[in-house]
Amino acid sequence: MKCKVCRQHAVIDVRRHNAGFCRTHFLDHISNQVVRTIKEFKMFGPDDRLLVAVSGGKDSLALWDVLVDLGYDVTGFYLDLGIGGYSTRSKDACIRYADGKGAKLIVRNLRDEHGYTVPELSKLARRAPCSGCGLNKRYEFNRAALEEGFDILITGHNLDDEVATLFGNVLHWNTDMLGRQAPVLQERILTAGHGAQKVMVKKVKPLVKIAERETAAYALLKGIDYVVEECPMVEGNTQHKYKEALTLLEEASPGTKSQMYFGFLKKAAPRFAAAPEDDVELTACAGCGAVTIEVETGEPMCSFCKMKALAHRRRADSLPAPSIRKPRT
Ligand code: SF4
Ligand SMILES: [Zn+2]
Ligand SMILES: [Zn+2]
Q: What is the arithmetic mean of pLDDT over 173-188?
């Protein structure tokens, strides 16, 4: 196969575009796709303060690399989840990348911040690891962005991630989630009783036009030393299973994933978006005060604080009762 642009030998074929690319033009293609996505969805401008959540994997490091090469001043944020050697190796990959590129990286540790690791939380809260992990990541990414004064939180969700989430949401007719599934989630301002206060930073996903296989090829061609191993807690993750099923469909009919996702955004997403009058009013969470993410009806407590309180309560209940000495008479 030849490169679509220069007719030299192609190093990769992108079947849904029916095109092959040489190294140079593939890297350009990825960068152009990111630029087009940022513009099309009005994600951010050159003056915005950008924070990219990095996991040490191919997607987030490739995205960070593209943005740095495009000239954006973008800081990385790594959250250590405490998943044994996997977390250590992932953190090291982020540090190596940041050092090599001269980029800024913020590292936080879940145990230092909240007193548990993801495996501990899963046992204490009796939740599947990925569900507790996802909630903690969303909360901590947002908190870090707000505390450190960033305007935009960028994540490395790619086309495969987004279409698998969409597939799961459709399978369960999770209409609330379908209403919120978009490449951009606008910031939220809390006004009631507190003056204007930003509680949720704007979140964007510039890789939605790029497949997982392509971010891996980008990372490989750029010599990015990312963590190849999968998280040891991924087993049982339903999204993972949806990805496998969708990849089979994509192989049989290239372009299926992109058609499903972008077709949804164009034709169906507006039908699920909450009408302004349906929008829930945000209140401050009693647990974390200003940094409220979600408030469920009836209780001024966000789901993160509820889960954290439950984990700490269960841990305290499992500790042996302190022995009480009888006072001497
Ligand atoms: S696989 Fe699950 S537990 Fe592991 S990092 Fe991803 S969401 Fe967290
Ligand atoms: Zn070429
Ligand atoms: Zn809270």
A: 93
The stretches of the chain forming alpha helices (DSSP H) are: 23-40, 58-69, 84-101, 110-114, 118-125, 129-147, 159-171, 175-180, 212-221, 238-252, 256-263, 269-272, 303-318
How high is the pLDDT of residue 286? Answer: 82
Q: Given the structure tokens 């940094």, which residue do they identify?
A: 291
Of the pLDDT bands very low, low, confident and very high (cuts 50, 70, 90), residue 277 is very low
Name the helix (H) or strand (E) containing 197: strand 197-200
Question: pTM higher than 0.70 for the full model?
Answer: yes
Distance of alpha carbon 268 from alpha carbon 273, whole angstroms: 9
Can you give the residue ranges of every domain in the chain? 34-280
Specify the ligand 1 atom closest to the Cα of 133.
Answer: 8
- CA–CA distance, 200 with 184 (Å, rounded to integer): 12
Cα 241 from Cα 59, distance rounded (Å): 19
Q: Which ligand is nearest to the CA of 290?
A: 3
* Nearest ligand for residue 12 CA: 2
For residue 19, the CA-to-ligand 2 centroid distance in Å is: 11
Cα gap 150→145, rounded to integer Å: 5
Cβ(233) – ligand 1 distance below 6 Å: yes
Residue 126: count of CB within 10 angstroms of its CB: 11
Distances (CA, A) of 270 to 25, 175, 180, 305: 35, 11, 10, 31
> For residues 257 and 250, is the Cβ–Cβ distance under 8 A?
yes
Closest by Cα among 70, 127, 71, 74 to 98: 74
- State the distance from the centre of ligand 2 to the C-alpha of 155, rounded, in angstroms: 29
Which class in CATH covers the domain with range 34-280? alpha beta
